[in-house]
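Page 47, continued from p. 46.
Same chain as before, 829 aa.
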Amino acid sequence: MAEAEEKEIRSNEESTDDSEEDESEEEPKLKYERLSNGVTEILQKDAASCMTVHEKFLALGTHYGKVYLLDVQGNITQKVDIVQVFGLYSGEEFHETFDCPIKIVAVHPQFVRSHCKQFVTGGKKLLLYEKTWMNRWKPSVLHEGEGNIRNVKWRGHLIAWANNMGVKILDMISKQRITNVPRDDISLRPDMYPCSLCWKDNLTLIIGWGTSVKICSVKERHASEMRDLPSRYVEIIFQFDTEFYISGLAPLCDQLVVLSYVKEVSEKTEMECCARPRLDIIQPLPESCEEISSDALTVRGFQENECRDYHLEHSEGESLFYIISPRDIVVAKERDQDDHIDWLLEKKKYEEALMAAEISQKTIKKHRILDIGLAYINHLVEKGEYDLAARKCQKILGKSTELWEFEVYKFKEIGQLKAISRYLPRRDPILKPLIYEMVLHEFLESDYEGFAMLIKEWPGDLYNNAIIVQVVVDHLKKDPQNRTLLRTLAELYTYDQRYGKALEIYLTLRHKDVFQLIHKHNLFSSIRDKIVLLMDFDSEKAVDMLLDNEDKISIDRVVEELENRPELQHVYLHKLFKRDHHKGQKYHEKQISLYAEYDRPNLLPFLRDSTHCPLEKALEICQQRNFVEETVYLLSRMGNSRSALKMIMEELYDVDKAIEFAKEQDDGELWEDLILYSIDKPPFITGLLNNIGTHVDPILLIHRIKEGMEIPNLRDSLVKILQDYNLQILLREGCKKILVADSLSLLKKMHRTQMKGVRVDEENICESCLSPILPSDASKSFSVTVFHCRHMFHKECLPIPSTMSPLQFCNICSAKHRGPGCAILEMKK
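Result:
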């Protein structure tokens, strides 16, 4: 029976009713469990009246006056039958018989120390017991006369107690009472709705009475305000009312845990009855409060309990909260990450549960990330979200081949292999080939495009290539023109290194990857007889490939293969000529006809750039086809400029082109022919007048113009001639000025240079006799001639100047003409 009752408290029992539990999406803040073992045995025969909590043990008092010491699991460790104060780990004890019932006992927080042997008792009086120097206990009355004292809390140097009138706080240092907080609702019986006290810290007291909550702060009074007042005072910093009657309080960080007694009206009897108690977490605000969470507790016998029957105790170190009722003790604790994950899984929030487990994987104890992930995948599959489930497999299954294969077979059973195909691992790990083949078969039966995509994306070593090739060949027997299957088969042949077969399929399909396949696998020997097919498919790429690999497929072989397709032959030879004018020189004669037939715009540039084409053959072809511009170029290149000029004037009738041609040839006879041909044609005369000025004297043309001939735009032409002449004169004058200035500058520079002295010493020799220029005996007279060119001679070694030309020149530099060596310097001694 007890075990069945223990199962009543579950993680989701805290909501106020079943409908709210189903609809609520807010996670509980606390989790609950019933304190069992020895407690269950005690409460079957007796009823709990009070309990205090230590971090290592619990002390439980019952209605029969028994006190039980329990461990934190609820096991009984010791039983006490009389009221006494004694040391658990020492031999000291205190026995006393009181003249009235004792309602409450509180010992000094540091009771174990020798100077802190104090405790207080509450009844009709508040008595302080102190140990004297003779090891006797001395009682003293701290307060009396305001009814029974039912609650006392001692923290640091402050004692707080509650009687029928309100709450008092005593400062043990000054032995003064520093405040009196009256109770708000005096209509409530203090014995039925007792006051709840709790110290949050050494200076903060929490008071709960009836439906009112007050949070009081003990502060130091300023010295200037003390006078006859206590050194400390109390300020109420928060005050608010709750919906239900308060049975207990405890702090939780900056929030409050409130145990409430609840009454409700029965739907059957329409009478007020006791409901399940509530444990609320409340956030105090300056003028109100905010409810963070609210849980209804199913404790044994709650229908018979009153407000005074419930108590709330807490363990500060572990944030444990004990809900005490006559027939039950429930432990509430903050939910850890495992509890949070449990709640998320219960609400089917698998994504959040998985994320929470990954973040806290070092601290969680109950859950494994893999288990949560597998549950998530199953949940998605059940919902029909197959693609999302398959995508999550990548993250959850990781590198486990066993898990991957298990999930693949599960997807196969539900007919969703296509969904997981995109996410199958392809490297680290690699699954069995059978897995990949099974997926490929699935696509091949229903989706050729999907099958082709997988073959393109998957490495060829994932599956048995020969098996897949055979299956594709079998399908092609049913549909031999299916381009998707043919393209896929070519890729499979490529993986299997059967490049020849792959190339044939690519060429048949005219597939863009054919050139990449040839380059990648060096298949040039396989395409010697397929050049026409390649050119038909993409002539630009084909020609570039052939020219880039002349060492593998020669120019002669390509030209031979294209012999029956002259238009393709021209494309190849034209690009070859563009790359190198000399490589295909033996085909230049052939190219003349090809250009004339398929690409006349490039014929003239070819004739200009080629140095190997036969001019007579080219001239013959151009004359046959009446290609005037090409014929003109060929005639001029062959030296027949007059015929070329005549053709321009007679065939093209283009004076500008004729003038341009005459300028290029720069031949006076051509200009004369041009003038003679144009003299009776006014438009030609106008063109000549506008362009001839810089090449031929315009007067020659003007004198030949017949009198009375009407020439269009004659005035403008004459003005242009005069302007061109003036421009020439200005240019000549400018050039002359520059030339004179430069000449003068250079003359001055030469004069300065020649005016400098010339060093003559023993190392210099006569350029004629080759003996030292200076005599060895310095006392002898000598005569030396030094030219400005720095050549030196003995005077007697120079020839005697003639009477016709008295100037003497350096024999070495100049014998007849005046030059830099004409002037001389003479040295005599």
